[in-house]
């Protein structure tokens, strides 16, 4: 397998040469991150696969985890198998690490498209799909909604209709990985130099789709019974080169996708609501029963689904909340340092650890 099969290009080569020139004391080689395991990375270099760890300097300079290598990244690796630097990402699918920490996690880097996989029978949830769409667009990739398990459900169109305007212009693939049906709708987004990530809830068939496209059973897939839902079969993110060129990134199922989004992408997913908001009488309309509120009028007239409006508000609150936390966290850190210093000083004072 060559680096160009994985998407290495003239443009990347130029970026790499520029980056390498800032490390004149060492010979660097380009590589792509395939998997990650406890802070070590499996890479593919021109000479083949190898494991590497980031240098202390790279770790130290990273402000948060999103600045460390992620699956799909192009990196510069030194002769001691250390990742020295990352090449700039052209896109990334990012989510918040954990519900109580305001830190982004890069699920897949340098992806051209993201297959948002959902199953036609039980998993289909318009609100969740809206969240995925926002996150994919925010990361600079093209979303493709993949409705899998169509063998279990004949009524696909009502599902799509339930997406409302979020479904307008959206690329949708209707497939059955089990019956190998609809594959051409997926391969249309693949090809040499292209990278596609598969995301979605556990059990929707991401790994089954990946095996199908790979033409072999490379990944484990899982039976899910009604009483053990939420069990994850795939446990790590993994980039897999495709036989026809290009690559796929399989990811573990996500129970909840917490957004790492900017307000502008919110607007892209809810363009209809933004359009209505522009027609409200007051510029600062809160759309909560204010006079002349175009959004309220649309709900009353049955033109806007109240559930969709609620999901817009929810997403908006989440984005604002993240925004605030991001702005406040350095100050909070400073405060914590001050407290720690005060405690230390108190311990050294003649009063000992006693509170004053
Ligand atoms: N009926 C039907 N079952 C499918 C289809 N695709 C996958 N499955 C089944 O769904 C189950 C889960 O598939 P996986 O591919 O492991 O799902 P996953 O999305 O990778 O799940 P995680 O790795 O846990 O995130 C398996 O039993 C598959 O055989 C399909 O098109 N139709
Ligand atoms: Mg899987
Ligand atoms: Zn309004």
* CATH topology value of one domain: Rossmann fold
DSSP strand tally: 13
Q: Which class best fits the helix and strand makeup?
A: alpha/beta
The CATH architecture designation of one domain is 3-Layer(aba) Sandwich
Give the low-confidence spans.
225-230, 350-356
- Could you tell me the strand content as a percent range? 15-25%
Q: What is the name of the CATH class of one domain?
A: Alpha Beta
Q: What is the helix fraction of residues, given as a range?
A: 25-40%
| Distinct bound molecules | guanosine-5'-triphosphate, magnesium ion, zinc ion
The CA-CA distance between the termini, in Å, is: 68 Å
Helix/strand order:
HEEEHEEEEEHEHEHEHEEHHHH
Radius of gyration: 24 Å
Envelope shape? globular
Mean pLDDT: 85
| Strands side by side in the biggest sheet | 10-9-8-11-13-12
Brief summary:
By secondary structure, this protein is an alpha/beta fold. Helices cover about 30% and strands about 20% of the residues. Strand 12 (about 240) and strand 13 (about 245-250) form a beta hairpin.
Q: How does this model look, in words?
A:
Among the domains are: 10-86, Nucleic acid-binding proteins (OB fold (Dihydrolipoamide Acetyltransferase, E2P), Beta Barrel); 92-250, Rossmann fold. The protein has helices spanning 10-20, 56-61, 126-138, 157-161, 183-187, 206-214, 263-269, 271-277, 294-300, 306-348, and strands spanning 29-37, 40-45, 48-54, 74-77, 82-86, 92-98, 101-109, 113-119, 142-148, 171-174, 195-199, 238-241, 247-250. The model is unreliable at 225-230 and 350-356 (pLDDT under 50). It has 10 helices and 13 strands. It starts with 9 loop residues before the first helix and ends in an 8-residue tail after the last helix. The strands form 3 sheets. It has a 6-stranded mixed β-sheet with strand order 10-9-8-11-13-12, with helices on both faces. It has a 5-stranded mixed β-barrel with strand order 1-2-3-5-4. A two-stranded antiparallel sheet has the order 6-7. It is an alpha/beta fold and 356 residues long. The structure holds guanosine-5'-triphosphate (GTP), magnesium ion and zinc ion. Residues 206-207, 233-234 line the site of magnesium ion (MG).
């Amino acid at each position: 397998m060559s680096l160009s099969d994985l998407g290495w290009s003239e443009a990347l080569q130029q970026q790499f040469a520029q980056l390498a020139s800032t490390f004149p004391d060492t010979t660097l080689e380009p590589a792509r991150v395939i998997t990650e395991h406890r802070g070590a990375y499996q890479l593919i270099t021109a000479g083949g696969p190898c494991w590497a760890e980031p240098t202390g300097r790279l770790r130290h300079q990273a402000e948060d985890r999103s600045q460390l290598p992620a699956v799909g990244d192009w990196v510069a690796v030194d002769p001691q198998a250390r990742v020295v630097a990352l090449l700039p990402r052209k896109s990334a699918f990012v989510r918040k690490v954990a519900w109580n920490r305001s830190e982004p996690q890069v699920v897949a880097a340098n992806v051209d498209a993201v297959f948002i996989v959902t199953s036609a029978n039980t998993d289909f949830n318009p609100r969740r799909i809206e969240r995925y769409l926002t996150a994919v667009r925010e990361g600079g990739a093209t979303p493709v909604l993949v409705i899998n398990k169509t063998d279990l459900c004949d009524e696909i169109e009502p599902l799509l209709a339930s997406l409302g305007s979020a479904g307008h212009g959206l690329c949708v693939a209707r497939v059955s990985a089990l019956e190998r049906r609809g594959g051409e709708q997926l391969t249309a987004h693949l090809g040499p130099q292209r990278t596609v990530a598969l995301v979605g809830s556990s059990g929707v068939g991401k790994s089954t789709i990946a095996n199908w496209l790979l033409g072999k059973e490379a990944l484990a897939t899982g039976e899910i019974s009604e009483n053990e839902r939420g069990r994850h079969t795939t446990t790590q993110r993994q980039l897999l080169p495709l036989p026809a060129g290009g690559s796929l990134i399989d990811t573990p199922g996500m129970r909840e996708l917490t957004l790492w989004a900017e307000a502008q992408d919110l607007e892209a997913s809810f363009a209809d609501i933004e359009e209505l908001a522009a027609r409200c009488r007051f510029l600062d309309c809160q759309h909560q029963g204010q006079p002349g509120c175009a959004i309220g009028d649309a709900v009353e007239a049955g033109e806007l689904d109240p559930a969709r409006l609620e999901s817009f508000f929810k997403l908006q609150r989440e984005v604002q909340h993240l925004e605030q936390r991001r702005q406040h966290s350095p100050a909070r850190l400073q405060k914590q340092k001050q407290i720690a210093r005060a405690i230390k000083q108190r311990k050294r004072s003649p009063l000992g650890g006693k509170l004053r």
